[in-house]
């Protein structure tokens, strides 16, 4: 886990009751939350010579294809990868919110856990607005999930219950959180993109603490067979995650003649593998600690290069 993820609620949360953790997160939300529509200067002009994410995090950085690109093309790749990530985040947050809303329908409306679930739902709603506005501002088309996949994705919220909801949330949030920390860490990145990423990183730190706490507590009580099943299916998320971040649509939009070859180059790119390994390191540690790193999952994480 990255140091920046750690919030007061995280330290020692395994021993604290869920209500205490939820209460701390609620207080943290009151102290530091953003309304991106007004808290981000959407009128500020973009700098044509700046990247949209740190170049070192781009999927083709350091490849032969990268060497053949001029600066303008590299910046365009960063714009399209930024937009692809935001588009993916929007549908992910949509699913999380549907899951949260279903969760609170069965929960006690007086409990702090319910109140924080609803607060997180509000955060994600604002994030979707922020991402949509950012896509509009950078002047690119959003990346659409193909219809057949959208139909499947729309069924996920029906299955998000208990530990499944917190695991789904954590899988998306934790890996992306670390990626965004790497993306923002470069003076050559557009101030607007930095602002969007920083707002998201700050608010997601609380969501990550909440999901981790929920998982720890539920894993401790669940039957061993259920933990074993979860531990061995989690790895399949890695395949979906990787596919989402090396989308041929991005390479086509940049004007690369063979988008599928570009995807293969990204998949084999050692620089990008290192980025992905760093993104997964905190989550891998958490899975080991909670007994959620099963043999099948470990094999998958290794095969896709997220784990040594
Ligand atoms: Fe979010
Ligand atoms: Fe979140």
Automatic annotation (TrEMBL):
<protein>
    <submittedName>
        <fullName>Diiron oxygenase</fullName>
    </submittedName>
</protein>
<dbReference type="InterPro" id="IPR012348">
    <property type="entry name" value="RNR-like"/>
</dbReference>
<dbReference type="InterPro" id="IPR009078">
    <property type="entry name" value="Ferritin-like_SF"/>
</dbReference>
<dbReference type="InterPro" id="IPR025859">
    <property type="entry name" value="AurF/CmlI"/>
</dbReference>
<dbReference type="Pfam" id="PF11583">
    <property type="entry name" value="AurF"/>
</dbReference>
């Amino acid at each position: 886990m990255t140091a920046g993820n750690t919030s007061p609620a995280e330290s020692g949360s395994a021993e604290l009751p869920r209500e205490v953790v939820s209460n701390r997160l609620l207080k943290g939300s009151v102290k530091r939350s953003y309304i991106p529509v007004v808290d981000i200067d959407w009128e500020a002009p973009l700098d044509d010579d700046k990247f949209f994410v740190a170049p070192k995090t781009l999927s083709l950085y350091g490849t032969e294809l990268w060497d053949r690109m001029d600066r303008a093309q590299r910046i365009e790749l960063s714009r399209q990868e930024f937009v692809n990530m935001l588009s993916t985040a929007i549908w992910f947050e949509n699913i999380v919110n549907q899951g949260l809303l279903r969760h609170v329908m069965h929960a006690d409306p007086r409990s702090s856990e319910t109140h924080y679930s609803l607060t997180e739902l509000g955060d994600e709603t604002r994030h979707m607005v922020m991402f949509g506005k950012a896509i509009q501002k950078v002047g690119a088309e959003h990346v659409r999930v193909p219809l057949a996949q959208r139909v499947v994705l729309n069924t996920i919220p029906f299955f998000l219950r208990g530990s499944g909801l917190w695991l789904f949330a954590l899988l998306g949030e934790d890996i992306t959180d670390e990626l965004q920390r790497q993306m923002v860490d470069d003076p050559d990145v557009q101030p607007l993109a930095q602002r969007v990423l920083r707002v998201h990183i700050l608010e997601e730190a609380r969501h990550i603490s909440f999901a981790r706490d929920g998982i720890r507590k539920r894993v401790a009580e669940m039957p061993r067979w259920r933990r074993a099943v979860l531990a061995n299916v989690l790895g399949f998320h890695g395949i979906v995650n990787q596919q989402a971040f090396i989308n041929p649509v991005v390479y086509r939009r940049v004007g690369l003649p063979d988008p599928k070859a570009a995807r293969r180059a990204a998949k084999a790119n050692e620089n990008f593998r290192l980025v992905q390994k760093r993104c997964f390191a905190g989550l891998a540690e958490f899975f080991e600690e909670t007994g959620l790193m099963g043999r099948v999952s470990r094999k998958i994480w290794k095969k896709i290069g997220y784990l040594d």
